[in-house]
């Protein structure tokens, strides 16, 4: 174990070490050094000390994270906190996955969004009343009608053999009125599966522990939810999750270590288009098993973001304005009207997603609990 570092330069250098090399005391010192950066990006209900507890618990419940660089682990945990999703728990919201970055020659942490995490973020947008995804089987009474009034009817068979899956659909009820739904056949889902890096790795090495084999229904739900979300009103959190998930599904570096710099975040060139659904995502999937072959990461581009000082100043200004006496009531801005206009259907190869562990694989408990 590396002796505890003391100087700022040593702690910065420790960020390039793995958590195992740095040791527990250095991990704690590393978080202490970056408290200002943490405060600038964390939601107000989270504290740097709580973030440290989350990181340490994640490493205990998922030991393979100890082989990842400390700065990428730091960035991944902050990202989870910003999204308000608990990592590596039976809730299945978000996962911290070891990622072999061949270009850098290191193992880094990537965040992979679970389908339940996408549902949670979609509900939190404030524009969606309900959202759900279901699998339709041959024994069910199921029908879809497209036209001037789109509709979907699903009456599941309650007894006996339901037969093989027909496909999967997701439907959202918008607060502004109306519904938006998306349907994918088994063939469409399997086309996404067959193009995923994780599934191809499992086939190549005769692995059966990939979620595409052990939990096809869960993966199918996430596939169709991801496609539906492109046509829904998006919060910042949902758009961020979509962009990060887009990089993970392509086997690309998410650049989470740059959270330490406090002045930019690495995103793909088409992050905005990915989030809005204007550009189809390429196939590719990150296997949750760290023993998978290394994936070549692609060069990233940095998008300028506010510096830590700017964000701290903005927070101080916001706090000051909140305590200042109000001279007159300000009229509320009108909420944009929601739309249910049908968007052109995406291509069947656009929604490849990363493999996720099954929701009940490991009982890790709540990492956000004290």
TrEMBL record:
Coiled coil: none annotated. The keyword Disulfide bond does not apply. The keyword Isomerase does not apply. Residues 333-342 have a biased composition (Low complexity). GO terms for molecular function: DNA binding. GO terms for biological process: DNA metabolic process. Pfam families: RecT (PF03837). Residues 308-318 have a biased composition (Basic and acidic residues). Keywords: Plasmid. Residues 273-370 are annotated as: Disordered. This is Recombinase RecT. It comes from Azospirillum brasilense.
């Amino acid at each position: 174990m590396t002796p505890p570092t003391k100087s700022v330069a040593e702690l910065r250098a420790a960020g390039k070490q793995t958590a195992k090399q740095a040791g527990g005391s250095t991990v704690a010192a590393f978080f202490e050094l970056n408290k200002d950066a943490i405060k600038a990006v964390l939601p107000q209900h989270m504290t740097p000390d709580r973030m440290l507890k989350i990181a340490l618990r994640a490493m205990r419940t998922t030991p393979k994270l100890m082989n990842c660089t400390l700065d990428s682990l730091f960035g991944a945990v902050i990202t989870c906190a910003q999204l308000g999703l608990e990592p590596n728990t039976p809730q299945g919201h978000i996962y911290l996955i070891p990622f072999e970055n061949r270009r850098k020659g290191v193992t880094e942490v990537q965040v992979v969004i679970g389908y339940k995490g996408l549902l949670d973020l979609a509900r939190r947008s404030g524009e969606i009343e309900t959202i759900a995804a279901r699998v339709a089987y041959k024994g069910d009474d199921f029908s879809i009608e497209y036209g001037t009034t789109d509709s979907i009817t699903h009456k599941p068979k309650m007894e006996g053999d339901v037969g093989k899956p027909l496909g999967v659909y997701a439907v959202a009820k918008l607060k502004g009125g109306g519904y938006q739904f998306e349907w994918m056949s088994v063939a469409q889902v399997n086309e996404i599966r067959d193009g995923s890096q994780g599934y191809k790795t499992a086939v190549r090495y005769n692995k059966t522990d990939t979620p595409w084999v052990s939990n096809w229904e869960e993966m199918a739900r996430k596939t169709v939810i991801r496609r539906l979300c492109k046509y829904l009103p998006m919060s910042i959190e949902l758009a961020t999750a979509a962009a990060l998930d887009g990089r993970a599904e392509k086997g690309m570096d998410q650049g989470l270590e740059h959270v330490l710099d406090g002045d930019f975040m690495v995103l793909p060139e088409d992050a905005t288009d990915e989030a809005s659904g204007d550009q189809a995502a390429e196939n590719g999937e990150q296997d949750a098993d760290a023993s998978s072959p290394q994936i070549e990461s692609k060069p990233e581009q940095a998008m300028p973001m506010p510096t830590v000082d700017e964000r701290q100043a903005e927070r101080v200004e916001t706090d000051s304005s909140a305590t200042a006496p109000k001279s007159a009531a300000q009229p509320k801005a009108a909420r944009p009207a929601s739309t249910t206009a049908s968007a052109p259907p995406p291509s069947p190869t656009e929604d490849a997603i990363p493999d996720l562990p099954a929701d009940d694989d490991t009982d890790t408990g709540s990492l956000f609990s004290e």
